[in-house]
Amino acid sequence: KNEVEQSPQNLTAQEGEFITINCSYSVGISALHWLQQHPGGGIVSLFMLSSGKKKHGRLIATINIQEKHSSLHITASHPRDSAVYICAVLSHVSNDMRFGAGTRLTVKP
Amino acid sequence: NAGVTQTPKFQVLKTGQSMTLQCAQDMNHEYMSWYRQDPGMGLRLIHYSVGAGITDQGEVPNGYNVSRSTTEDFPLRLLSAAPSQTSVYFCASSRWTGRDTDTQYFGPGTRLTVL
What we know:
The structure holds 2 protein chains of 2 kinds.
Chain A: E1 4-7, E2 10-14, E3 19-25, E4 29-37, E5 43-49, E6 52-56, E7 59-64, E8 69-74, E9 83-91, E10 97-99, E11 103-108
Parallel strand pairs in A: 2-11
Antiparallel strand pairs in A: 1-3, 3-8, 4-5, 4-9, 6-7, 7-8, 9-10, 9-11
Chain B: E1 4-7, E2 10-13, E3 19-25, E4 31-37, E5 43-51, E6 54-57, E7 64-66, E8 76-78, E9 87-94, E10 105-106, E11 110-114
Parallel strand pairs in B: 2-11
Antiparallel strand pairs in B: 1-3, 3-8, 4-5, 4-9, 5-6, 7-8, 9-10, 9-11
C-alpha cells in the first residue's frame, strides 16, 4: 500500500463544476504539498499546508492532521484547470518527500 | 531571479556511459532534491539535501550519486547508465526551516533516454 494515496485517479468535469481531489497518507508528516503539472510537463507548487486551510483564488486546500487527510477543491472549474494534481508529504522522521500517483483532471467546456 | 535551472533539457546516452545532470538555484534555498518521473508513475525521490555538505538517499537512489558543495548547486551523477534510468528528471528547491520545507520550486526537467 502506498504511503500517499490520491483519489480519484482520473476526473472529468464540465466547466463551472466544483472539483474535489482527496489525499490520504499513512506516515507522520511535517507538511503537505499540492502540486500542479500541466501537459507540457512543468510542475508548479499550489499550496504548502501543515494545518487548517488555505485559499488562493479559486483553489482551496484543507488538511486534517488527526485523520491524515487533505483535500484540494477547485471552485468554478475552467478548461485551463486541466492538469495532473499531485499530493506530496514531507516525512517528519526522515525529511524526505513522498508523492501520490496524481489525479488527472480534465475540464470540458 | 532565474529560479531553478536544469541542464541539459534532453540527453541520449548509451548503456554504460556516465553523465551529470546539472541543477542550480539562485534563491539561497537550503533544501534541494532530485526526482524521476516515469510514465504512469508518480514522482519518486532519488536524493535530497538540507544544506551544503549534507545529502541523503530517497526512495530510488541506486545508480545515482549527488554532492552538495555549495548552496546553489546540486548535480546528479549517473555512474553507469542503464535503460531502466530512462525517465524525466526534475530538480526542486525550497527553504528549509530545520523542521519542514516551504513552497517547492521545480526546474523544467531533463528528459533522459538510455539506449
